[in-house]
Amino acid sequence: MEELAGRSYIPKRYRISKSRTPVVDLLLKGIEDGGGRVVSSSFPAKRLAPILVGAEDGDNHRYGLLVYPFTTTRRATRNRPATEHRFQIRYGDPERVRHEPNPVGHDPAGVDITLVLAVDPETGIIVGLDPLVYAQLPMGISGYYRDTNAEAVRVTGWAWWAREKTRPRTAQGEAWDGLESMVGFRPDRLLDYARFEALATSLGFDTGLRAVQTQRAANQAGLATSLGFDTGLRLSLAEHFVDGTIGRHDLETLYGVSAATILDIIESNFRLGVAVRGSVAEHHLGNLLDGDPCIAGYETIDEDGMPDFRIWLGDGRELTIECKNALSETYKDGDAKVETQKTRDSGAGRKYAYDAFDIVAACMFSVTKRWTFKFKWARDLTPWTTDNTRIGAIQRIDDTWVDSLDDLLKREAPPHERHPGDS
């Protein structure tokens, strides 16, 4: 473990060239332009990444910023869209470094804020990457954002979006898939972004000492952890940071505890945690329905014994959807499974009748760690062995399930025309 300015938690340092000076200058000038003051900077006295910057905002609050800066360019690249802005995760020789452990440093005390930034010194646009997603730097890979993203930053000063992560062609790539969030901002919003990242990172870590121990162990082993803040929640937080700050949630005021304490309570209470995971899955499904072009409208149904959503299609049909979480345990062949019975009642009362809802949406987060869904008509679910007019408690999520409502709606006739209990 090497040490930089007394920061012994930094697992690895990289030499960076003098050519990166315009990138660092833009960051430091951004602090000043935002009404802050640069107290100290480890660059250029030490041409090493990460760069440690001490800053103070207009309210005299101090910040320790541990910055991993990468350069963004807007150049025509063969076989790539002309609208892309490209940055490369690179320090030194990527051919040599990419096969080594490249963990990102995180302050176990939560005082210093880790920032992974793609900086364009020509356009004055900075894009912040999730430092927990990039807990292991995938040396040599490129990242991109679009002209539309850059224009949103130029016009508003603060924008956010999601993109597919690139999978490195090395051993690091095994856990490197899914979505990542990006937050773009003008340089004068740098300390606003630091405040955002401090909160997002604290929510992304498992709370308490266990997170610190996990991160320390991972740094020592040169590995990335599985810690992270869900992409959708991170983007939602970015939306609330448009003005540079975020107030306390009403529940924090009502209960007299912090958001972190509320999360601790949820994590320590199994039943409460299950209920929250169900509600979060419904939230993500609602977001999916809201952006689905095949749906004319939808509403949530917050009533006991009723499905979770009612949707209206363009052809006038009205359908209901029940949202369920896939179980973390899978079958031996890798197929996932989902419990399709009521959480309350007992015996036959727990089993759904086939007309209880039209569609079941299985949230796959427990299996894939991504907020995606699999869909199936209720009429096609396996019946209960005791009474084939009711749906079986456990369903195998196999290739008869589909990835979207659009694919499901293309299958056969409308629901309720038949089910395994019909004569």
Descriptive notes:
It is built from eleven helices and 18 strands. Mean pLDDT is 82; it is low at 168-177, 206-227 and 413-418. The protein has two domains: 14-251, no CATH class; 270-409, Trna Endonuclease, Chain: A, domain 1. Strands 2, 4, 5, 6, 7, 8, 9, 10 and 11 form a nine-stranded mixed beta sheet that branches. The chain is an alpha+beta fold and 423 residues long.
What is the H/E order?
Answer: EHEEEEEHEEEHEEHHHHHHEEEEEHEEH
Helical fraction: 25-40%
Rg: 25 Å
Structural class: alpha+beta
- β-strand percent reads 15-25%
Number of strands: 18
What is the count of structural domains? 2
Tell me about the biggest sheet? 9 strands, mixed
Q: Give the helix tally.
A: 11
Low-confidence sequence ranges: 168-177, 206-227, 413-418
Distance between the first and last residues' Cα: 71 Å
Average pLDDT over all residues: 82
Shape: elongated
Summarize it.
With 423 residues, the chain is of the alpha+beta class.
Features:
423 residues, alpha+beta, Trna Endonuclease, Chain: A, domain 1, 2 domains, 9-stranded mixed sheet, 5-stranded mixed sheet, 26% helix, elongated
Topology, element by element:
Layout: E1 14-15, H1 21-33, E2 37-41, E3 48-49, E4 51-56, E5 62-73, E6 84-88, H2 94-97, E7 112-120, E8 125-129, E9 142-146, H3 147-156, E10 158-164, E11 179-185, H4 190-204, H5 209-221, H6 231-240, H7 250-255, H8 259-268, H9 270-290, E12 295-300, E13 309-313, E14 318-325, E15 336-339, E16 359-363, H10 365-368, E17 373-377, E18 394-397, H11 405-409
Parallel strand pairs: 5-7, 14-16
Antiparallel strand pairs: 1-3, 2-4, 4-5, 5-6, 6-9, 7-8, 8-11, 10-11, 12-13, 13-14, 15-18, 16-17
Helix pairs in contact: 8-9
